[in-house]
Amino acid sequence: MRGVQKHFGDLHVLKDIDLEVPTGQVIIVLGPSGSGKSTLCRTINRLEPIDTGTIEVDGKELPSEGKALAALRADVGMVFQSFNLFAHKTILENVKLAPTKVRKLGKAEVDKTAKDLLERVGIANQADKYPAQLSGGQQQRVAIARALAMNPKVMLFDEPTSALDPEMVNEVLDVMTSLAKEGMTMVVVTHEMGFARKAGDRVVFMADGQIVEDTDPESFFTAPKSDRAKDFLGKIL
Ligand code: ADP
Ligand code: MG
């Protein structure tokens, strides 16, 4: 992202954002509520249009519409706080839907990939159930499998464990940790500090729509530079 600016009416939510996410890195985005973390994620796959600046994914600038945008969205997997699974489709169907429609892959290939992914997130035995029959942690793992089914180049996670009961947080973080270890490029908005320290290559701290600090997790947590970051850490640690 280079020089990205974004307003909602009079509200300046992203102020001149420069952010580079090298292939294979895991970037943890931290910051107080309302600082623009979700908006930043959403601009990366153009769920939100930007006012000015440029965003490139894998060296290609974001197209504004049409087929090129659909293809780019397929390269960017996104997992939200609310799992957003299709309630009237089975777990397996949820994972198969996008690759069938967007990637136009063959039936057998899609089927095999989807089952492998459910295996990978530890849900293979639930494939024929419906979302409501699964726990929140299981549903979120399905949502991760569904995003991975598109074979994305980067995965965005926006507070993926915030809506979960505490005992389910780790099963989702474990899946994310193994993804990170496998070399997936990830942008993760989370307040899970253990995960941030363990899996993060960098911490990007936002406040009021600006990137205030961009450093390695250890430095951020042990020696934050800005008053905003010190204040934030004082509240959550
Ligand atoms: P965060 O994820 O860090 O909590 P957000 O990116 O959700 O922050 O929001 C940043 C600011 O933009 C907040 O003040 C929020 O109220 C505002 N905002 C977010 N989405 C919209 C929208 N669709 N319309 C108007 N204001 C919005
Ligand atoms: Mg948010």
From TrEMBL:
<dbReference type="InterPro" id="IPR030679">
    <property type="entry name" value="ABC_ATPase_HisP-typ"/>
</dbReference>
<keyword id="KW-0472">Membrane</keyword>
<dbReference type="GO" id="GO:0015426">
    <property type="term" value="F:ATPase-coupled polar amino acid-transporter activity"/>
</dbReference>
<keyword id="KW-0067">ATP-binding</keyword>
<dbReference type="GO" id="GO:0005524">
    <property type="term" value="F:ATP binding"/>
</dbReference>
<comment type="similarity">
    <text>Belongs to the ABC transporter superfamily.</text>
</comment>
<dbReference type="InterPro" id="IPR050086">
    <property type="entry name" value="MetN_ABC_transporter-like"/>
</dbReference>
<keyword id="KW-0547">Nucleotide-binding</keyword>
<feature type="domain" description="ABC transporter">
    <location>
        <begin position="1"/>
        <end position="233"/>
    </location>
</feature>
<protein>
    <recommendedName>
        <fullName>ABC-type polar-amino-acid transporter</fullName>
        <ecNumber>7.4.2.1</ecNumber>
    </recommendedName>
</protein>
<dbReference type="InterPro" id="IPR017871">
    <property type="entry name" value="ABC_transporter-like_CS"/>
</dbReference>
<dbReference type="GO" id="GO:0005886">
    <property type="term" value="C:plasma membrane"/>
</dbReference>
<dbReference type="InterPro" id="IPR003593">
    <property type="entry name" value="AAA+_ATPase"/>
</dbReference>
<dbReference type="InterPro" id="IPR027417">
    <property type="entry name" value="P-loop_NTPase"/>
</dbReference>
<keyword id="KW-1003">Cell membrane</keyword>
<dbReference type="InterPro" id="IPR003439">
    <property type="entry name" value="ABC_transporter-like_ATP-bd"/>
</dbReference>
<dbReference type="GO" id="GO:0016887">
    <property type="term" value="F:ATP hydrolysis activity"/>
</dbReference>
<keyword id="KW-0029">Amino-acid transport</keyword>
<dbReference type="Pfam" id="PF00005">
    <property type="entry name" value="ABC_tran"/>
</dbReference>
<keyword id="KW-0813">Transport</keyword>
